Amino acid sequence: MSLSVRSRGVPMSREQFLQLPEGPPFYDYVNGEAIEVNRPTLRHQEILLALASQLLLHTRAKQLGKVAIEVNLELPNGNIYTPDILFYSPQTEPRLDLQRGYVRGVPDLIVEILSPSTAEYDRTQKMSDYAACQVPWVWLVDQDTLVIEEYQWTPEGYLRRQAVNAQTPFTPHLFLELTLQMAQLVPAASESESQEDF
To answer: Strands 102-104, 73-74: parallel, antiparallel or unpaired by DSSP?
Structure first.
């Protein structure tokens, strides 16, 4: 039996959530509720592809691990999200649920690209869960300004290690041989684009 969800925050069991058909619409599973999430738009996807391609090239060349984009991640607390980018080192290799196409476990890095409609959700609900599950590194990327914030997990919560603007080279602590400069990877948002909810 397939189920349908028409609004945000619909209570259901995990088993019911797993029976939902593939979207659209798309959902996260958070604390016993299916939460409808917006699909990404062009600006978001430009940033996603630019970052993911650089991470993929670097991690493959150095044999550092696996990069994945927009796959369902089942955290140890049972909540299910679809982060923009995941990275797993060989030491934290994910468990794959091939039947559902899910990844289980705690990745080394999660990257979330913030849009106006999702920024609060990403900064509060998701970051809280990522901290509870001890995800070591999280990057938050503002899609309008291209500022990258790098957070490291500590027992007291996430510590912001750096916030780098689009014109400044960003060298992540997780990949010390990688340098990214967002202004070179992604064209600046035009005035009209920044008014839209990308």
So the answer is: parallel
The better pLDDT of the pair 40, 158 is held by 158
Q: Are 81 and 68 in contact (CB under 8 A)?
A: no
Q: How far apart are CA 198 and CA 114, in angstroms?
A: 9
Cα separation, 65 vs 24, whole angstroms: 30
Residue 166 identity: A
pLDDT (tens digit, 9 = 90+) per residue, 159-187? 999 999 999 999 999 999 999 999 999 98
Question: Which of 195, 190, 183, 151 lies closest to 47, judged by CA?
Answer: 183
What residue ranges define each of the domains in the chain, with the CATH number in brackets? Answer: 1-37 (no CATH), 40-187 (3.90.1570.10)
Q: Give the helix/strand (H/E) hosting 50.
A: helix 42-61
